[in-house]
Amino acid sequence: MNMMDMFGKMKEVQSRMKDAQENLSAVTETGESGAGLVKVTVNGLKNVLKIEIDPDLIKPDDREMLQDLIVAATNKAMSNVETKAREQLRQATEGLLPNIPGLNLDGLM
């Protein structure tokens, strides 16, 4: 592969990565905690989109538990959406770069 081809490929990779990153807002994931009593939905940009709380949990005595469940559901959703986002970026650049051991594009997310 000559240098001009390599630069062309890198430009295409950059373009596809930019497109994929822009599409991350459409990638969503929901995390649940407390057997589904608390649900948090996030997008691939790691923005919280929605928090759903079962009405039975909204009691003054359960405030601390509710806070813990929200944190757990949010963390689960963030973890799940990161996996989806990484896969989407991988698919967007598939076949553009040679398989180079140790090349990690995760930092581009």
TrEMBL record:
It holds the Pfam family YbaB_DNA_bd. It is found in: Cytoplasm, Nucleoid. Keywords: Coiled coil, Cytoplasm, DNA-binding. InterPro entries: YbaB-like_sf, YbaB/EbfC. It comes from the Bacteria. Residues 3-30 form a coiled coil. Its main location: cytoplasm. Gene3D superfamilies: Nucleoid-associated protein YbaB-like domain. GO terms for cellular component: bacterial nucleoid; cytosol. One of its GO terms (molecular function) is DNA binding. Transmembrane segments: none annotated. Belongs to the YbaB/EbfC family. Homodimer. Binds to DNA and alters its conformation. May be involved in regulation of gene expression, nucleoid organization and DNA protection. This is Nucleoid-associated protein SAMN06269250_3639. It comes from Spirosoma fluviale. The lineage of its organism: Bacteria, Pseudomonadati, Bacteroidota, Cytophagia, Cytophagales.
